[in-house]
Design brief:
two-stranded antiparallel ribbon, mainly alpha, 2 strands
């Protein structure tokens, strides 16, 4: 698997956050930010553990119990890399329609595939267990109407009271409309883009603090505000990166100093996540994560070098698939646990050590399935939409 990373890397589309690494125009120099790709993969794995509700030592770690905040890391990364890849091109006349079509092609094929997996499994259950058929599609989370909400990517816009079907996909819905908002604001404000970004960085946390009972732990209700907040923080982070880059290049700090800075950034973020929970402190998450993203964007320390290890880069490549498939895989692990429980006559998830083993098996399964979905769903879907955009460009130029 790792040996194939070299063949995949030049055309990677990674989460979330959802960075597009495409071949840019020749006059646009875009850094690769490889360490940030690895961070996306690491955060995706942490979110995976957060959603796995079994009694375990891993699940009892404060970092894991509050790992929902790493979705905000995705949003910050998304804002940073979308600004890095598209801001200049959009300002120079690149079509907003083609930009949105590329972003749609990046997120939708796998989203649709996973939605079909969830609906298909429930439909199978409907016929296998006719005695329970009246309750199978009755909850709002798994309702027939929510299927259409997911199909049209509107399930994070306050239409539903809770997450639906593939529960993690609310953030994909929020990101899609955030892309649209970003492109519109960028072309309207142009060289004054930092103004609406700063407004978002002040206004969005105030809105979340006043509207959400759980502050940053908001999804289907105020998820779009949460996404705009993190995305704006990431886009402003790239604004700072461009202005600091000449200074960093001219006065390149020693590797030891850069490494200490990276370590402090990681420890600060970890302490923040462990202590923030679902209290008012959580609304500052995009600020903390922006500092981490900015520090690692320069890739000057030894931690950045470690993040370029092939295995971590591979996890970064698979990050979107990890995020999108993990809830479905976890459901199947729960099902397997119930089967074993019936055979043995006892609930196997009562031991934290068994829970730890289940966490490891779950993550390895998610990684394996993610490799398959990346190769056979993400990549073909992305390439099809890239080809469509290319055909549109040729038609417009012809």
């Amino acid at each position: 698997m790792i040996a194939q990373i070299g063949s995949f890397y030049p055309s990677i589309f990674t989460l979330g956050t959802n960075r597009v690494i495409s071949q840019p125009a020749k006059d646009i120099a875009i850094p690769r930010f490889s360490s940030l790709d690895s961070w996306r993969g690491i955060c995706a794995c942490l979110v995976t553990f957060f959603h796995f509700s079994v009694y375990s030592h891993i699940g009892n770690l404060a970092l894991i119990q509050n790992a929902y905040l790493f979705v905000d890391f995705f949003f910050v990364l998304s804002g940073f890399v979308i600004a890095a890849n598209y801001q200049k091109r959009l300002l120079e006349g690149y079509s907003v329609g083609q930009f949105m079509l590329l972003r749609f092609g990046r997120i939708y094929p796998l989203h649709l595939f996973m939605l079909l997996c969830f609906v298909g499994s429930y439909t199978l259950l409907y016929f296998v267990m006719p005695s329970e058929s009246e309750t199978i599609f009755s909850s709002e989370r798994k309702s027939i109407s929510a299927i259409f909400g997911n199909l049209f990517l509107v399930h994070s816009l306050g239409i539903y009271d809770d997450v639906t079907w593939n529960t993690a996909s609310w953030s994909i819905s929020a990101e899609f409309y955030t892309y649209m908002i970003y492109a519109g604001v960028l072309l309207t404000m142009r060289k004054m883009l930092h103004v609406p970004l700063l407004i978002a960085l002040i206004g969005c946390p105030l809105l979340i603090a006043n509207l959400s009972e759980n502050y940053m732990d908001t999804t289907a209700d105020y998820g779009l505000i949460r996404c705009v907040y993190g995305f704006a923080a990431g886009a402003l982070c790239f604004y700072l990166f461009r202005r600091l880059q000449p200074l960093i290049t001219a006065f390149k700090p020693q590797e030891k100093f850069a490494t200490y800075t990276e370590i402090i950034a990681i420890l600060s973020a970890a302490v923040f996540v462990c202590s923030a929970g679902k209290n008012v402190m959580s609304v500052f998450a995009p600020y903390i994560f922006s500092a981490v993203v900015l520090i690692f964007s320069f890739e000057l320390g030894r931690i950045s070098a470690l993040l370029k290890h092939k295995f971590l880069l591979l996890i970064g490549i698979l990050s979107y698939s990890i995020y999108m498939v993990h809830v479905f895989i976890q459901g199947r692990v729960y099902d397997a646990g119930k089967v074993v429980g019936k055979i043995t006559g006892q609930d196997i998830f009562t031991s934290p050590w068994v829970g730890d083993l289940a966490c490891i098996i779950m993550l390895l399964t998610v990684l394996a399935v993610s490799y398959v979905t990346y190769r056979y769903i993400e990549t073909p879907g992305r390439n099809w939409f890239k080809g469509l955009v290319k055909r549109i460009e040729q038609k417009n130029n012809g």
